[in-house]
Design brief:
Layout: E1 10-11, H1 12-19, H2 25-37, H3 40-48, E2 57-58, H4 60-70
Helix pairs in contact: 1-2
Amino acid sequence: MEKKFEIRTYGFGELAQLYLPRVSKTSASKMFSSWIYRCPELIERLQGAEWEKRQKYFTPKQVKILIDHFDPPY
């Protein structure tokens, strides 16, 4: 049975680890951050959803933007 991704508030590291489950939370956060910052269009969309640099969590609206860009993590 395939697991369905839940759109909800996620901590930055929590969401990063869903995308990068085989690395530590710190490393996953750094890698996920680099993915985000490589795409100015994504940053612009996130900022339109009230996201700010160094924010510790993603709102459901921001999570939706991220999974639209990266696809769900599973």
